[in-house]
Amino acid sequence: MLSFDESEDQKLLREALSSLAINFPETYWRLHDGKGEFPQEYFDALASNGWFNLNVPEELGGTGMGLSEVSIAIHEMSKDCGMSAGDILMAICVFAIQTIKTFAREHLRRRLLPELGAGKHVMSFALTEPTSGVNILDIQTTAKREGDGYVINGQKIWITLAHKASLLNVVARTTPKGEASKRTEGLTLFLVERAALKRGQIRADRIDDISMRALGSNNLYLEDVFVPEDNILGQLDRGWEVLPALLNAERISTASMSVGLGQLVLRKATEYAKKRTVFDRPIGSNQAIQFPLARSKADLEGAWAVAQRAAWEFDHGEDCAVSANVAAYMGARAAFFAADRAIQTFGGLGYAKSTDIERHWRDSRLFRTGPVPEEMVLNFLGQRVLNLPRSY
Ligand SMILES: Cc1cc2nc3c(=O)[nH]c(=O)nc-3n(C[C@H](O)[C@H](O)[C@H](O)COP(=O)(O)OP(=O)(O)OC[C@H]3O[C@@H](n4cnc5c(N)ncnc54)[C@H](O)[C@@H]3O)c2cc1C
Question: Which residue, judged by its Cα, is nearest atom 19 of ligand 1?
């Protein structure tokens, strides 16, 4: 029978996460955002309560759940605590656990998945480069064969949490573009373990930016970094076949974060619109204030429905590319609209750090630009789904 209800397990998951979230109020995140400081206490609380084990397979001591439950967890934490809280779950459960359990060699899975479940690692996904931009096939980072491994050289940009990460998923070119038999061949994903680094250097420089400042993004320099062959994720030269699974899971996660954050700001704006009185009546009785809040409700419901569908498709091994892209696109726009209208509802107070609206507004803007800019989603839909001519 078709059901749109969350299961009993999923409801319990929400309740448990929600009671953990109470310990991390807006003041906690405001402080960490202000200082650009990692929310270690929050990370430790997730680890000690077993939340990173959510999608670790049962035979390795995990809960064995899928991306649907991970996306619910990301949504719940973003709804209660904001985007950085959800993003940490994405870094561990999606970038790390989902990728390693699907694409790493068996001995690495057996060692690293329980460690990740216990909160022993932070992992970053290092794809973007300064010169290639959204054209992944143009990346300049190389990995050259040497002995029983590969030596990586190159520069990445915007790599979230790279200054904290003990594990990195680095995308590099293993066959030069001109020599590859197919346009999409020649890229390889490498699992780099910093603690096991026998040769080479990895350096991360924080970028002073405006979004999710508690986590932070970095320029990342890789110089002569030796990685054993066993640390290839998927197959040599066939990174292009691994990336869709990773990027779709990432899009479902960012959609879940966006919807959660949108609901957080909508809740705050609605409460404020009911109590703030100007011209002897609550500002929420003016349609100019009320309708955008109502529209936000509609936009967020729509984005969440598509995100859940995408997660369901992902867990059932179906092609989720369209739903994942649409969910990321709708979610990002809905969150930004909701945050923008929350500023309008709060008036001048929307600019005061003490109301936290400006922080959520800064964060809500991110997913319109990265990890996938909305233009690239529209390119994908126009070309691959509507079969329109390639526009670039
Ligand atoms: C805070 C933050 C955190 C990030 N974290 C990570 C991370 O952890 N790991 C990682 O690998 N990356 C990360 N990124 C990078 C992010 O994914 C990229 O910034 C994003 O994909 C855009 O790439 P770009 O900045 O190189 O833009 P560019 O490629 O320079 O593009 C600039 C603009 O031009 C548009 N454009 C380009 N080509 C076309 C076209 N053909 N048609 C229409 N429009 C086009 C783009 O959509 C974009 O709007 C992060 C970025 C930020 C800001």
Answer: 370
Residue 1 has pLDDT above 80, yes or no: no
Other beta carbons less than 10 A from residue 61's beta carbon: 14
- The whole-angstrom separation of Cα 331 and Cα 310 is 13
- Best mutation site among 128, 139, 141, 325 for ligand 1, i.e. most ligand atoms within 8 A of its Cβ? 128
Superfamily of domain 240-385: Butyryl-CoA Dehydrogenase, subunit A, domain 3 (1.20.140.10)
Q: Compute the C-alpha angle 161/188/95, nearest 5°.
A: 30
Ligand 1 close to Cβ of residue 209 (< 6 A) = yes
User: pLDDT, tens digit, for every residue of 227-278?
Assistant: 999 999 999 999 999 999 999 999 999 999 999 999 999 999 999 999 999 9
Q: Quick check: CB of 193 below 6 Å from ligand 1? A: no
Q: Does domain 125-237 have CATH number 3.40.630.10?
A: no
Is there an atom of ligand 1 within 6 Å of 83 CB?
no
Alpha carbon of 296 to those of 97, 248, 359, 372: distances in Å?
Answer: 33, 24, 18, 22
- What pLDDT score does 280 carry? 98
**Ligand 1 contact via 4 beta carbon (within 6 Å):** no
Delimiting residues of CATH 2.40.110.10 domain(s) in the chain: 125-237
Instruction: Give the residue range(s) of CATH 1.10.540.10 domains in the chain.
Output: 8-122
Q: Is residue 99 within 8 Å of 233, Cβ to Cβ? A: yes
Residue 192 CA to ligand 1 center (angstroms) comes to: 23
Q: Does domain 8-122 have CATH number 3.40.50.150?
A: no
